[in-house]
Structures are given as C-alpha cells and as structure tokens.
Amino acid sequence: MTQKGSVDQRARHAALGLTDEQAVAMYETMMLARRFDERGQVLQRAGKVNFHISGITQEPSQVAMGFAMNREKDWFLPYYRDYGLVLTVGMTVKELMLALFGKGEDPNSAGRQMSAHFGCRRLRIATGSSPVTTQVPHAVGFALASKIRGDGAVAVVTFGEGSSNQGDFHEGCNFAGVQKLPVIFVCENNGYAISVPLSKQTAGRISDRALGYGFPGIQVDGHDPLEVYRVFREAHERALAGEGPTLIEIMTYRVTPHSTSDNDMAYRTKEEVDENRAKDALPAFRGYLEGLGLWSEEREQALQQRIRKELDEATAYAERAPYQAPEDAFRYVYAEDNGEVR
Amino acid sequence: MPVIEYIDAIRLAMKEEMERDDSVFVLGEDVGLKGGVFGTTKGLQQQFGEDRAIDTPLAESAIAGVAIGAAMAGMKPIAEMQYSDFMFPAANQIISEAAKIRYRSNNDWSCPVVIRAPIGGGVFGGLYHSQCTESVFFGTPGLKIVAPATAYDAKGLLISAIRDPDPVIFFENKKCYRLVSDEVPEGEYTVPIGKAKVMREGTDITVISYSMPLHFAMQAAEELSREEGIEAHILDLRTIQPLDREGILEAAARTGKVLIVHEDNKTGGIGGEVAAIIAEEMLYDLDAPIRRLCGPDAPAMPYNPVGEKLFMLNKEKLKAAMLELARY
C-alpha cells in the first residue's frame, strides 16, 4: 500500500496545538475537579455542609473547554456543575471549599449563595443565580460589550439541556445570531433535568436549534476531551473572526443524583447509571497520556497525594473560617461610599 | 430658560450622556432607525451609529438580559421596554438578576443598567398599552425606581439613572410626553434619586403623588385656592424606590391631612407604603385618616372611551377628594 500526501504522525493533542505539558495539566485539573466533587459529597453526607451539587464525569469536557479559551481575556458564565471549568479558569480548591462551607472569605458570594453559584470578577467569571438560563442573555451582553469596544473578548456560557428549553436560551441565541456576537453557547447535555429524561424534554436535537438562529450547532462526545477542545478552538476562532456565535452540545451523562437533596433511584436504574459510569473519560484520558509516555503510575500517585493534601488543607481552612459577620450580612444591596449607601 | 416637552427632555438626557460617555448605549424594539414608537430615541442611531442605538429582536427578556450582561462588562446600557405592559417577560431578568447582582456577589459585581418603560393610560391603549406596572417592581431591594412628572425632572433623573452604579427603572409617563412642558436648563444637571420635591406650598391638606396625576393635583389645587381658599401642599415623590421618608413625613406634618394619589391600582400600590410610613411615625399627629385616590382594582383600563375615562384620574376627581379631605 502506498501513501500519498502526509499523515500527521503527531499525537492527537499535539496535532491540536496542545503541548505535552498542557495535556498533562488538563488531566491534573480534571482529577482535581473530580476529587473536590467527591469530597463535597462526603462532607455533605457527614453533615459538615448542607448542600453539594455534582458534575462528576462532566469534568473532562469542562476542562477541555476552559483550555480552549483565552483565560486572560474571555468572559465565563458557568452553570452549577462546572467545577472543571472554574478550576481551569483559575479558581482555587480553597476558594471552592470556602463556598461549599458558605464562609465569608468565599470570593463567589461570601457564603450568601448556595455553593456552586460561581462568580469571581478577578477571574472574569460572571456571578450566576439559581433560576436557570438567565446567564445566557448575560453572555450575549458580555459579547455585545466586546463587539462595541472591539476588545477581542469571547463569552462562553454553559447550561444544561433542561435550560435549553427556557425562553432565555432562545432569546439569547437569536439576539447573538442577528448581531454576530463573539459568544459560545454550551449545552452540557447530561440526559436529565433533575428527574425528567431528555426524551420528555425535547423531541429534537438541541444542537440543531442553532440552525434556526443562523449559526453552527455542533454535537460533540463529552467522553472525548480532545475532540471537545477541537470544537471549542474552532468556535473561538469563529468568534474572534467576527463570524458570530456557535452552539456546542456536549453529550455527557449525570452519574450522580441532581444534588445531595435528590434520590435518583426514584426515576432511573442503577444499571443505567453503572453503564454510563463505565464510559468515564477520566481514566481513558489517563490511558491516553500513559500510552504516549507522558504519564505513569508514579506520577499518578504523586498527583493523588498532592490533591489529597490540598483538599485536606482547604477543608480544614474552610471549616475553621468565619461566616460573614452579621453586620455585613445585608450590605451591598446598593453601592456604598465609605460604608454609606449612595 | 427654554421650555421643552417631557419627551424631548428624555431624549436630550440620552443624547448628552451618549456624547459624554462612550459606554452609554440604547437598545430596544424600534429604538434605532425609527427612533422609538413614541420618538423618544429619535436621531440617536443617526448620530451614534447602529452599535450604540440598537434595534433588537422583539424579545423583552433578551433586551433586559443582554443589557444586564453588558452592564456587568462595564458598559452603561439603557434598555427600552416599548410599553411597561410588555415588561413582564423581562421581570425575571430584572428581579432575579439585575436587582441581586451586587448583593449576591458581595459587591464583587455590579449592574449599572437603566430600564426605561412608559407607563400610564389615557391614550386609548386599552388593557395592554396603558398599565402602571411600578407596584410589580416596587419592594424589590436592589432596584431603584423613578417616575418623573416634569420635563426638568425627566432629564435630571434620567442623567442620574445613567450615572448610577446600580439598576434603575425609569418609568416615564406616555401621557406626559407631549402634554407636559416646562423649563429645562441647557447643558448638564442632575436630579438626585431618592429625593421628593415640594411642588406647591400649602397649609390645609397634603397631596403626595408622582407621574401624571401630580399635574391633576396641581390644577385642582389652583382651583381650590381660588374658589374655596383651600391651600394644598403638594409633594412629588419623583423617586418611588427608595422612598424619601423624610420628605414624606415633612410634607404630611405640614397639614396633618394626607391624600396619596396614583394611577396604579390601589391594592398593593406605592400609596400603601407611603401611608404606612406616615402611620408608623406620626399617626397621632394626623387630623384626618390617610386617604388614597388611585386607579380601581380592575386588571387594567378598558379601551372604549367611556370605560377609559372612568378608570383614569383627572382634575375633577382630585378636586373632589381634596375638598372632602379639607372639610374633614
């Protein structure tokens, strides 16, 4: 058999422009998000915190998404399962732990909001709320500001497939399509809106909805983080080139209950969950790195040790940290000048 | 000092602020090429271009939500709701988002957005082009709400709203647009948010109002003075959130007889809160029970002229209520 032309012999990540160090860093961040998330569940079960909501098995695609963005310039509007994304953007485990415990030093909200309601101006992560999908028009507004100022920032906004049925999704997409704004809409389709399966949420394909708004919609396998990275790089380039928005539907599965307040065995089977858990991209990505000689059992042990230490320290710190002082509890309803309402 | 129409005062405020500050822009349905269905934004797109006077899709939640996002990004958006009646699809964005962004982020983020919406009837607009929707947003901490009655206040309050670091709802009265004209200085000035204004000094009764009905009170007061020798003290709230407690109490104390007037329906309206403030602080200093004259507790005003007239306040209704209170 004769070959014509050249075949790219580089590893997949290298062909996508990722260095070995970046590929390894992606894996480490995925694992950090996973272990934080598991710790959150344990802390809730132990009665140390009141609530935790999980993104387990969604982290590989979240981290890949974050790596494809410009972390110095872009705007991030994550939803409540995006530990992988916010860690990639620069939030620390200590900060996430402070939010989990609802403590005053939490940069997301000083413990005012339930945990996983992300927001941090320093990291260009916009503050979010609980009524779902309100962040979609906000992302369009960030992108509009970028277009007006010509500052080259791209907005990326995530939401679940349940959220994609809200009016704000459609209104936001339509506005951005008309204005050709630099925004990436990301549906993390994990198959369930609490108990309601995808089949009862929509009769169509969510990525197809982009067609109606005049921009590309792409469905991507969430178990393939490098493919996720690739489609996000393309979407980012389109945004910067003034070609407008992209809708990316990441196909994934929610292996945990909706939150620690939910019993998922009331509406699905353990077999279904186990079958999907087996598709977890995290060990697969490790295997990919090992196959290239970029990762080893020794490095894995060292990573696990490092993460465990970081989590232990963060947990101890957050547990001891004070809540926001009562005299500050109702401040900042409006802007203040020297402590006085303006 | 030039006398200009209320609608021109609103347009001038936007035009001058857009000239002064590149981050100010307007967005809404028909606000661009057409210059708004009432003409409020006329000429802005011609002067500032399509990026700063943006014709949006017909989708109020996006108009508000996009403005909120842009405000978080450091812009100063003015979002127009074509009629306050059509503002409810945006209520989640305004109440759950704009109002809470500073508070929920512990002062990390802010949302300096202005949402303009015309209120009020008397234009044969029927149920859905006539409503006063301020009570729906009133009582939501984090929002400021203004409702000017004069051209002077319309311009000064809109400039203050644009410069305010927090979300401000600007309820402009569509009946006032061309009916109300007064002296407006050339060049920039501001009217502080949160300060009521005494429009007429009097000793017999106090009328507290805002927006269009304020003018009916002024007209009725002149007639009552001439015909009955009754002198009404009239306070224009101008800002309905936060209410000017001091101004309200001072005005009530002037006469000890208080009539509160608004076109929004009575139950759950601003008047109830104004009455409560007075009752909490000075019930025993009053010489008469606090009265309210408001739109009826019907969903909205009818389209037919007879029904609309029955619903609307006017000088005669004000005069009768003021006279009755004066004689109490």
Please characterize this protein's 3D structure:
The complex is a heterodimer of chains A (342) and B (328). Chain A is 43% helix and 10% strand. By secondary structure, chain A is of the alpha/beta class. Chain A has one domain: Rossmann fold. In chain A, the strands form 3 sheets. Chain A has a 5-stranded parallel β-sheet, with helices on both faces. In chain A, strands 4-5 form a two-stranded antiparallel ribbon. In chain A, helix 9 links the parallel strand 6 (217-221) and strand 7. The longest helix of chain A has 26 residues, at 20-45. In chain B, the strands form 3 sheets. In chain B, strands 3-2-4-5-7-6-12 form a 7-stranded mixed β-sheet, sandwiched between helices. Chain B has a 5-stranded mixed β-sheet with strand order 9-11-10-13-14, sandwiched between helices. Chain B has a two-stranded antiparallel sheet with strand order 1-8. The radius of gyration of chain B is 19 Å and the shape is globular. In chain B, 38% of the residues lie in helices and 20% in strands. The model of chain B has no long low-confidence stretch (mean pLDDT 98). Chains A and B meet through helix 6 and helix 7 of A and helix 3, helix 4 and helix 5 of B.
